[in-house]
Each structure stands twice: as C-alpha cells, then as structure tokens.
Amino acid sequence: MLNCCMTHLKRREAIKQLFCITAGVALIPSCMSDRSKAAILLKNIKISAEEEAMLAALCETILPKTDTPGAKELSSHLFVLTMVDECRKKEDQQQFISGMKSFQDKCQSYKGKDFTSSTPDDKKAIVESIIADKDDSTDLKYFFKTVKGLTIQSYTASEFFMTKVQVYELIPGRYHGCVPA
Amino acid sequence: MGNTNNKFDVIVIGSGLSGGWAAKEFTEKGLKTLVLERGPEVKHLRDYPTTNMMPWEFPHRNEMPQAVKDANPVISKCYAFREDAAHFFVKDNEHPYTQEKPFDWIRGYQTGGKSLMWARQTQRWSPFDFEGPARDGFAVDWPIRYKDLASWYSYVEKFAGISGNRDNIPSLPDGEFLPSLELSCVENYFSDFVKKNFEGRHVIYGRCAHLTVPQKIHLEQGRAQCQKRNLCQRGCPFGGYFSSNSVTLPWAEKTGNLTMISGAVVHSIMYDEKTGKASGVAVIDAKTHKATEYFARVIFVNAAALNTNLILLNSTSKRFPNGLGNDNGLLGKYMAFHNYRARVSGKYDGFLDKTTDGRSHTSAYIPRFRNVEKQETDFLRGYAAGFSANRGIKRNTDGFGEALKNNLDKKEMGPWNVGSHMMGETIPKESNYVALDKNKKDEWGMPLLSISIDYDDNDEKMVKDYQEQMTMMFEKAGFQDITTTDSKQAPGLDIHEMGGVRMGHDTNTSMLNKWNQLHECKNVFVTDGACMTSTSTQNPSLTYMALTARAADYAMSEMKKGNL
C-alpha cells in the first residue's frame, strides 16, 4: 500500500500540499481494491473513477495549460469535489450530481462518446453549447457554473497565481490611500 | 507563583479584554492576583496556529465546512468565523443556551477571550453619552461623567497604543494617539464633501488599537509595529494590535504576582454572611469537573457581559437568594446591545486613475450626529456609522479555455466600492433580560443562560433614519448604484451586548455604584459590558479598559485603607 501511495503522490508533485491529509480529504490510490471508486475520499457525494476523470478533463477544458499552469496541473477537479462535498448544502450537492448526469448524457448524445475520450474540438463544442443555452435554470447549467467557478477559484487562489500573477503579500507593511492606478 | 492555600489578594474572573487589564493593574502594584479563565490556554506567539498561513494553505480557502455550519448555526453567522480563526470561537453545540427570543450569542472561551478576534475599533465616550439617560429620560442616570473617566482613557490609550487623528469633535473626544494611517482617495473625498455640506457631521479616520508607530512602552511590552496584515483574528506575531495575550497578560506575568489558571469554569461567587463580603470563588475544572475553591479580598467579575450576569445570578445564598447583590431584583435586567442591521452601499466613478496600495486595518468612522445637542428626531439617541471606500482588481471570468485564462490574468481595476454600516444605540429596558434557565443545566452543573432580548420601535425608526440619511449623503456626493439593506439579524451579532449589572446612584434602581462595586457586596467589582447603564454608539472596549483601570485603582486604595 505504501508503494502505491508514493507513486500516486509523485505524480502530483506539482500540487504539493494542495490535498495533503487535511480536513478529512485523503488521497487513496486507485491501485487499491475498488478501481471504480474516485481517487479521493468523499463524505457526502458519490462519484466513480470515470466521473472523476471526466471532471478533470472538463476542468482542463475550462482552464487549460497555457504558459501558466492549467487545471490538470493544479488538480482543480479535486478542489471542485472537495468544495462540493464539504462546503455545499445537501440540495446543492444533489443538483450538482444531477447536473453531472445531464452532462454525461449531453456528451453521449453529441457524438456517442464520453467527454474524456472526445477530441479537443468536440470538448470545446460541448462546452460552448452549454454556455449558449439560454435556460439558466437547469441542473446542467448549475453543474457547469459550479465547476467553472470552483476551477477559477482553484487557479486564482493557488500558490502559483498568488506568487506569480497577482502577488499576495502576507506582510504588506504599508498602506497608501491614494496612488496612481 | 501559586499560593497553596488558594488564597489571593485579588481574583479576576475572565482573562479577556477587561479581565486582562484588571490583572495588569493589580499585579503591577504588587498584589497576588489569580486569573480564572474557563477556556484553554492561548499563549502569545506559541498558540497562533494559523497566523502565518498563506491563503492556498487553507483546505477550503477560508470557507467553513457545511457540517460545521449545520451543527453551529449561531456562530456560523459571525463574519469572523472562518477557517483561519474558527478555533477561537465558541461552538453553539458545545455551549448551548436558551433563546427565549432570537439572540446570536458570540463568544470566545480561551486566554484573551474576544480580545484576540475583536475589530480593534476604539472611541472615547463623550459628556453627551454619559448625560444621555438623564437628559432623555431612559434607563437611570450614570453615576459618573466623562470628566471622571477622561484621565483613565488617557492612561489606557497610552499603554494599549491607539492610533487616531485629533479631530476636535465635541461628541467624540480626542485621545492619546499614535499617528493615523491615510484614508483612501474616496474616503477623503467623502470626508471633505460631508464637512462642506453637512453641518455637524464628520467622516474621520477610524481610531483603532494598532501600533502604527510603537512607543517606548510598547517596545518594553515586547511588541512591534503593526505590519498591516489584516489577519489580527489569528493572533499577531508582531503584537501589532491590542489583545490581553500580547499586552496585559505578559506584563502581569513579568511582575511575578500573577497566577493564571485555564480550564477553570467559575460556578459562583461565595458570600460570607459574617463579614458581609464575598469570600471567594467556586470553580469547576473544565475537563475533570472537580470542584475547587479560591479565596480573595477582592473579586473582579470580567467574564464578558452575559457570563458575568450568569455567574452573579448563580451566586445564591441565604442572604442573596436571587443572585449576589440582587436585593432589588434588577440583576440580569435592562440588557441592551448595538443595532447593526442596516447597510448602505454604492459605487463611485471618480478617482479612476487612483487606487490604494498595501492594506489598512481600519477605515473611516462617522460619529453620531443625531440628537447630540438636543432631541431632534422621532427616535431617541442615534447611530454612529462606518464608512469605507475601496477598489480592487476586477476579476474577468468571461469565456473558457485560453480566453478565460487570459481574462483571469488581467489586472484591470474595478470601480470604487463605497459602503457604510450602522451602529445604533439601543434603549435598555426591563423587558430585555437574561435569566437562569429553570430546567436545563450545562455539563458543569450550571444553569443555561436564558436570553430574552429584542428590538423595539425606537430601533426600527433608527434603521429607517440611518438608511435615509446615508442614502441622501451618498446621492449628494455623487455615488451611484446605491442600495440599502436591513439584515433583520437577531440582536447579538453586533457582539456588543451590555447591561444586567448596571451602574447607578440608587441601590433601588441599579446594581453597581460609581466605582463599579456591587452596592450590596462591596468587594465585588464588575467592569465588563455588564456594568453599562446605557450603550451609546461607540465601540465599547476602550471604555471597559478605562473603567477597569479606574475601578482597580479605587479597589487598591480601599484595600490600603483596610475597607476591603
């Protein structure tokens, strides 16, 4: 078990302590017993390893690697799952899962493939069609908005963003009330 | 260190803002002082687990897990109950109480109490505030006036370190100030605008307990300049703001006269009929539930307003069947708080070529301008208000993919956001009270506190007036997109609850005399929020510090004379 863990952790080297064993979130390697369960321990929502992979792919489509890290490198999908699992009400979790199922259906009805194995162009087309849908009240829209919002937060609240793009100063040491913008 | 006979000169109940101060005064003058704190120890620097954490190190980016919120609906309403400071707040499910009417009781049970997490805003009361009840015919007359407290305000301000400007406003006396910070462009703009257009109204720098420029005394305390991190609620590695943990308790400890016991729940104050004085304090160990008694000549009750009421109500004897000193039946009555319900916000399209740099630990403050010199409106008293104007980077979240990435990396500035919140005085009434729950007890065998406190018609009128006045001022100043809100929140979230053991001249209509002594038990003093006869509009902590220092000084002079 320990060897499995080490391999798993090495793959996530870039994320460092993002999902260390804190606040009840544990990394359980998929080499362990049940391949069909997700790679993190969720308390309130249930998703499969396939659904986790789909989420990872969706997050990367929303926020891809450019010259700055993308969602895969930041494990944004794990942040999405953690926040939905631990910081959302039951009814919101249910809507998220329901919306996720709608998303899977939408992918299948597009070209008969799931999101993970779709081409980059097809992935873009699927996302574009969700955005274009004028009906904002569907579970699918809720699912997408939630994934997009939390993916954005995983980026803007990441160590990378806060040290390289918009630097967060723990100790500003100063305050000037009126300087050129 | 400890006195094996459990005998001390002074016992202080509570190590929070006022209790810590009492400990400092007594130990400084050579008195053996026991401080009893019901919560766990929080030692300055050693016990600030989150203080140097970066935002991405918090598993939920400072949001609280839903399970915690569901189990603790009351504390979850508090703005500061976040991942970085939640460990300093009392969880409702661990410390239940009875809400006869809705009341959000916000507490901190540890060394330093709420002085760890407070907002550090400090203002002196003025003559108008002490004269309020007598002039306007509510509550009872304060037995003191501003002139009795002025030198004590100076005394505590110098030691604590208070930053402010000399604004020369009669309804908000200036103090012993360290330099102020700047205000933002739009805060200054609004300040100038209000000064020019509204006689008697002022928008000033928000005075606060921060070491903008530490003085010799502060360096002696082992503190350093505030670094404007704005993470005070975590505990400060620089001691940049005032807390018991970083200022008064270490100072008391240095004297060698302090004994601190944590995890000590005070059950009651013991009364000796023969001497006509309190003999000491009965304590229950928080973990083992073992009972211990401690004895002292003088007892200062600084358990925080509602807990002080609870302890006194629970201190029954043959002489005082209704609570210590409670001959007149007023203990627990005439509670009050601050009305924090309303907010006004907007945007400003001026100064678009300017922004702020760094962080400020305060903003602007509007002293009460209603009914100051005389009664003018259809409601009594009035409200102070906060005012802040900030702008930040406008987060562009349009699109997805590479386009979204590029949008997120943009550093386009958003508009100036302006906002104000009200801090209204409430009128103490007999019908607002706390009492012992008749049936339920907590795990230490103490009755739960039953709270029956509500808004009244005066509060509703005041909310309306605040919204109208601020909206009008915002509009005239050219602010746009103005919205007003009334949170309709229950009393308590202001975290400024006061009363129950009020000061007054007359033993029939008050509990404490002008020295904060219980009328009927002269060696027991109350100097936290419970002693307040009226609430006025100021953030009260500075006044608690001054009252405590003054009462301690008096207690010591009485002890010297052999009266206590």
Protein model, in words:
The complex is a heterodimer of chains A (181) and B (564). Chain A is mainly α. Chain A is built from eight helices and one strand, in the order ααααααααβ. The model of chain A is unreliable at 1-35 (pLDDT under 50). Chain A has a domain at 48-159. The N and C termini of chain A lie far apart (54 Å). The radius of gyration of chain A is 18 Å and the shape is globular. The model of chain B has no long low-confidence stretch (mean pLDDT 97). Chain B is an alpha/beta fold. Chain B folds into two domains: 1-164 and 242-337 and 428-454 and 496-564, FAD/NAD(P)-binding domain (3-Layer(bba) Sandwich); 167-206 and 341-425 and 457-490, no CATH class. Chains A and B meet through α4, α6, α7, α8 and β1 of A and α5, β14 and α9 of B. β1 of chain A pairs antiparallel with β14 (354-358) of chain B.
Please summarize what this structure is.
The complex is a heterodimer of chains A (181) and B (564). With 181 residues, chain A is mainly alpha-helical.
Average of pLDDT of chain A: 84
Specify the helix fraction band of chain B.
10-25%
Low-confidence stretches of chain A: 1-35
Largest sheet of chain B: 8 strands, mixed
Instruction: Describe the main β-sheet of chain A briefly.
Output: none
Helix content of chain A: 55-70%
Q: Class by helix and strand content of chain A?
A: mainly alpha
CATH superfamily of the largest domain in chain B: FAD/NAD(P)-binding domain
Distance between the termini of chain B: 23 Å
Principal-axes geometry of chain B comes out as globular
What's the gyration radius of chain B in Å? 24 Å
What global shape of chain A is seen? globular
Q: Note the quaternary state here.
A: heterodimer
